[in-house]
Structure formats: structure tokens, C-alpha cells
């Protein structure tokens, strides 16, 4: 994939081909690097996020994580004004301390952030102490993959779309 006509993005890997699992080859390659105890959860998160986003975003592997980006056709300005770098909407990472989910909507929309925090607290009231899941400004960190509310992450993916995010990013400060 090229972010702008004729300008390749060195930070991403396009996902045109699928393997025997039906996943794009770059996703399969990524999953092979994930520790075994997290692989099933990462795959479940990938499936629910992809299903809830539909064709509104493109899945790529960039910066060592799966990212759903706003296509250049929808936001040609690119991330931080660089048309070569697509705007990341949501990312999924397996990091040293656990699984992290980055969602730009949590950062850009206080209503979405409040909605998520409230729903998360209701689902896991005894787990909102930072031990299992920590909610940062735009990042959700989970040290125990078994405690990730996969369905809620799917709801979050569908709650605010790239069009709303692009509108927010296009508004002058």
C-alpha cells in the first residue's frame, strides 16, 4: 500500500495476500511472534475489531503491531500532516508487560473515553485497580490476557468511526 501516490510508507507492511487461515500473510507472520499464551486472545481481538470496523479502516502491520489505519483516500493529510504516514485509528500490540490496545478515539473524544471507562468498571469492578487493566489517555494495557473484555473492545471499535475521527483531526485548533 502507498499512503500517497508514488510515496511508499516505510513504517507499514501491506496486507494483500492471505494464507491458508484466511488471514493476511503479514498478520500471520505477526501472530507467530506473539507468545503462545497471548496468541489466541490477539487473534480473537483481531477478528472482533476487524468485524466491527468493516471496510472503514485498513489493517496493516506497522511499528511491530497490528494497526487499523484510516486510508489515504479518506484522510490524505496523513498522520501529523505527513501524507506518507497514514492516520492510525486503532492498534493492537503484544508488549513485554502484556497486551496493549491503542485507540485514537479514546484520546480525541471525552464522551467515548468516559463511556469506555464506565463500561469497563461495570464489567470488571474488582479489576479496575490497575493490576489487570490500566486505562491511559489513549492506551489500554492488560497484563492478564484472560481478563480482556473482547466484546467491549469490539463495541469500542464500532462506537466511533474513522469518519468522526477524521472530522475531529480536520478541525483547526
Automatic annotation (TrEMBL):
It comes from the Bacteria. Residues 1-20 are annotated as: Disordered. This is DUF1801 domain-containing protein.
Amino acid at each position: 500500500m502507498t499512503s500517497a501516490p508514488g510515496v511508499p510508507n516505510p513504517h507499514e507492511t501491506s496486507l494483500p495476500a492471505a494464507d491458508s487461515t484466511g488471514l493476511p500473510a503479514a498478520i500471520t507472520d505477526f501472530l507467530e511472534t506473539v507468545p503462545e499464551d497471548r496468541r489466541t486472545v490477539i487473534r480473537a481481538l483481531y477478528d472482533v475489531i476487524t468485524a466491527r470496523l468493516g471496510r472503514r479502516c485498513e489493517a496493516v502491520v506497522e511499528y511491530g503491531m497490528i494497526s487499523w489505519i484510516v486510508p489515504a483516500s479518506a484522510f490524505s493529510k496523513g498522520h501529523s500532516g505527513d501524507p506518507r504516514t497514514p492516520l492510525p485509528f486503532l492498534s493492537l500490540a503484544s508488549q513485554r508487560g502484556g497486551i496493549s490496545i491503542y485507540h485514537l478515539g479514546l484520546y480525541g473524544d471525552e464522551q467515548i473515553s468516559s463511556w469506555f471507562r464506565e463500561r469497563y468498571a461495570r464489567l470488571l469492578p474488582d479489576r479496575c485497580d490497575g493490576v489487570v487493566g490500566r486505562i491511559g489517555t489513549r492506551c489500554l494495557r492488560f497484563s492478564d490476557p484472560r481478563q480482556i473484555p473482547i466484546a467491549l473492545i469490539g463495541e469500542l471499535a464500532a462506537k466511533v468511526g474513522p469518519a468522526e475521527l477524521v472530522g475531529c483531526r480536520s478541525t483547526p485548533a
